[in-house]
Amino acid sequence: MKKSKNLLSKLFVFSLIFTSFSPAVFAEEKSLNPTIEESPAVSTEPIVESSLQPEPTITTTSPETEPSQPQLQTQSIKEITPKVKTTIPLQLLGINDFHGALSTTGTAYIEGTPYRGAGRAALLASYLNLAETNFKALKPTGTTLRVQAGDMVGASPANSGLLQDEPTIRALNRMNFTIGTLGNHEFDEGLAEYNRILTGTAPKPGEFNTITENYIREASKTEIVIANMTDKNTGTIPFGWKPYTVKSIEANGESVKVGFIGIVTTEIPNLVLKKHYENYNFLNEAETIARYSKELRDQGVNAIVVLAHVPAVSSNQVVSGEAADIINQVNAMDPENSVDAFFAGHNHQYTNGVTGQTRIVQSTSQGKAYIDLTGELDPETQDFVAIPEAEVLPVMPNPALTEDTGIQSIISEADALVAMVTTEKIGTAVDAQNISREPNAFKESAVGNLVTDGQRFIANQLGYQVDFAMTNNGGIRADLLVEPDNAITWGAAQNVQPFGNILQVVEMSGEQIERVLNEQYDEGGKYFLQVSGLSYVYTDNDDAEQPAKVHQIRKEDGTRLDPNATYRVVINDFLFGGGDGFKTFTEAKLVGAVDPDTETFINYIKAQEAAGQVIDAKVTGRKTYLSATDIQAAETAAVQAIKDATKIHTLTEGDSALTGTTLPNAMISVQLKESLARSSLTTTATENGEFSLDITNLALTKDQIVAITITDTDGNQAQFEQTVLEKAQITETEKPNPNKPDNIGSSIDQPKGSSTSKDPTKLPATGEVTTFLPIAGVLMIGAAGIYVMKKRKCTA
């Protein structure tokens, strides 16, 4: 709807006022011509809003001979019959993110309400037909168009995916979808392959499996519009697609032109293999819409619909997300724009609301719901009369509604063709429960653990000696369905990993691994990883752009990840190209390649079956959250445990070994305090916690301070200090036995001979300190007293 319509309404009101104050002579002159029944102001009125409708006593069309004769004015009103405005009803039925879901059912969340068991293409077709029938019953002169907002194919179940999604093209034809745009999944195998199935062209011999080569295909009836993508070499939109299309909607001998602009998300480089997008430019969505909206208006097309594969969400008719942001930007760039409706997609969320003067809608995904948008078109303004109305409705089983037999025939044929592959049993689950891809609060899922465990297993079978595996959660497309007899089929496994992305073995440092894990926790948090071979704790972060951060990473054996060490990781080629925004993966060094993820997952389950192992996947705590308070408490307790367990023997000048006991397998590091910049001497305690460190190179002398750091296996540290004593101050019989700890130790900054610990809030206290100095002092004082007494006797 053009944003300038208010101006026309204001001009109409002004004309009412002007004519009501015209001179009487002018009124008499008009009254001499009884054939004039309505003024130009009435005949050109584009929209009569309720707030602007004239009161019955106000007239601009009746002649007024004398202002003092109300009877004549009333008679004039009765004689004039304003022209009845005729409009053309339009219904747009829409879907998005179908993903070849010919037989898929699931839960559709509509305004927070779950509709379970929704979906199936044959049922969707019947609902669309019913919606059109009901619309035509109310609006006999109305027109219905069916539109889609991208991702019709790709990430598809086996009965579509194994046949290159050509059954889906046939099903969409049967449902009469005539206008659509691209989503990111249309790029999955490259736009050339997508264009092949659109045009109904046969593949090259040997390019795909036999069932695909022999499949009865047909060209798509959907006209693809895509405005914000161009070929880098030619500067034009590829494959002859257009930025928009215009449809003439006709009724009662009148017509209104409606424009449809196509938009794809500019996140494509984060979502698609590099080789499938590197030849294209992706243009700003808002700028593109503003440009082509103006171009359409210049052609007299004021009713404009955008089909955009960009995310949106709404609550109580309030829309948020990129779709709303884009419309707000368009309104700022071009306040006179005439975008009336915006069909969104990509994030699979229910959306229905208004931003500015634009209705924004999205129908969840996989045919579990559909959009029914209606509006009235004005032949005079060539625009919608008002903001279109819309409903998003679930596709639920209904005994009164018969599934479309034509669609079901397409599905049955596809099922039969792929059955020899999909029904093969490849594994056995521990029970008949499906293995869920639903992530827990920490974004770990049971099937995600199974997928990444399988990738690591197969890579190691091939001799790559892999430490970890990681995959993007978006690549896991379904629960792993288990048959009643606990069987896992080929088709069920393929549904989980349908993309066929090549798995890469790469080398990464521990520091790079920590960075890539942190890339999950940006402000959106919508892209995350499933992992195998490691676990980690994350906590809150003060940075608004990264509200959480990784705190601690452990390998499978429980030891800490070394930031300086090099590890081998299995990832798919999508992630290796920086997909889903994981840019650090692009820094990894490629070592080798494994089979595609689909085959790898299937082969892993087959290998477990061959080994007599059942599949028992669970959430195991590979991702855990701790608050900063919890972390501090744990670290404090760990430091105290080191202090309590550590006993260090006294050091005297010339000693060649530092001995004592501490926590098992703890690391002991020693330096002279005055030379902390030098490298330290280190050793590791035994399983019993005993240690002996050669310190000959320190060449200890009296009063030197030795700094000792004890690090437990979790990386917690406690620090100690020992002051070197004079060797003459201790006798051979008093010197501790290095092989028998005697609870001797000293804390940081303790004065010699003192057993008082420092403030524990500053530096950790240590074990007891026991020396011979107090005894020696008493003996010396006693000897001095005897000497004085003898002296006095001698002088007496």
TrEMBL record:
Residues 758-793 form the Gram-positive cocci surface proteins LPxTG domain. Gene3D superfamilies: 3.60.21.10, 5'-Nucleotidase, C-terminal domain (3.90.780.10), Immunoglobulins (2.60.40.10). It comes from the Bacteria. Keywords: Cell wall, Membrane, Peptidoglycan-anchor, Secreted, Signal, Transmembrane, Transmembrane helix. GO terms for molecular function: 5'-nucleotidase activity; metal ion binding; nucleotide binding; UDP-sugar diphosphatase activity. Residues 426-587 form the 5'-Nucleotidase C-terminal domain. Residues 1-27 form the signal peptide. It is found in: Secreted, Cell wall. InterPro entries: 5'-Nucleotdase_C (IPR008334), 5'-Nucleotdase_C_sf (IPR036907), 5'-Nucleotdase_CS (IPR006146), 5_nucleotidase/apyrase (IPR006179), Calcineurin-like_PHP (IPR004843), Ig-like_fold (IPR013783), LPXTG_anchor (IPR019931), Metallo-depent_PP-like (IPR029052). It holds the Pfam family Metallophos. It is a peptidoglycan-anchor. PANTHER family: 5'-NUCLEOTIDASE, 5'-NUCLEOTIDASE-RELATED. This is 5'-nucleotidase. It comes from Isobaculum melis.
